[in-house]
Design goal:
Layout: E1 3-6, H1 12-15, E2 21-22, H2 24-33, H3 38-45, E3 46-48, E4 55-57, E5 68-69, E6 72-73, H4 81-85, E7 102-105, H5 108-115
Antiparallel strand pairs: 1-7, 2-4, 3-4, 5-6
Helix pairs in contact: 2-3
The structure holds iron/sulfur cluster (SF4).
Iron/sulfur cluster binds at residues 14, 20, 65, 67-68, 73, 75, 79-80, 83, 127.
Length: 131
């Protein structure tokens, strides 16, 4: 039976060092949500990734995501896919030590209903993954 991790909105993943990779569509969507021109958004809230293959959100001085506001995501309605899919779509060994998501054993059908994808899918991660 697949395991579905139910996010408790603890924001631990928003505080880890690493990257929040952005697609072009996500850049456009977040800029619109913030009522900014795309160029202004890019200049103010993003930087080039170390691999120079795209943009990532910048961090605050303490390493947390620039959009973390208290105990919530300031762009929750349009947050990047990478954020939405952790920890079911991607994670890393030992993530349970810092993430408070509650693990549920579910049927394949329930897993697909909750995530929108087939059981067993796993992608490479982002925030919390160095570089
Ligand atoms: S965009 Fe939102 S969910 Fe993603 S790391 Fe930043 S604060 Fe967290």
């Amino acid at each position: 039976m697949p395991i579905f991790y139910e996010c408790q909105r603890c924001t631990a993943c928003c505080r880890w060092p690493g990257q929040v990779r952005l697609t072009e569509v996500e850049v456009d969507r977040i800029a619109e949500y913030k009522s900014l021109k795309v160029n202004d958004f890019v200049e103010r809230y993003t930087r080039l990734r170390p691999d120079r293959k795209g943009l990532t959100l910048i961090e605050r001085g303490d390493g947390a995501c620039i959009f973390l506001e208290g105990g919530d995501c300031g762009i929750q309605a349009v947050k990047p896919k990478q954020c939405r899919e952790f920890p079911n779509g991607w994670n890393f060994p030992g993530f349970e030590a810092v993430c408070r998501a509650v693990a549920h054993e579910v049927t394949d059908e329930e897993y697909a209903r909750r995530t929108g994808w087939e059981a067993g899918r796993q992608e490479g991660g982002g925030r919390g993954v160095p570089g």
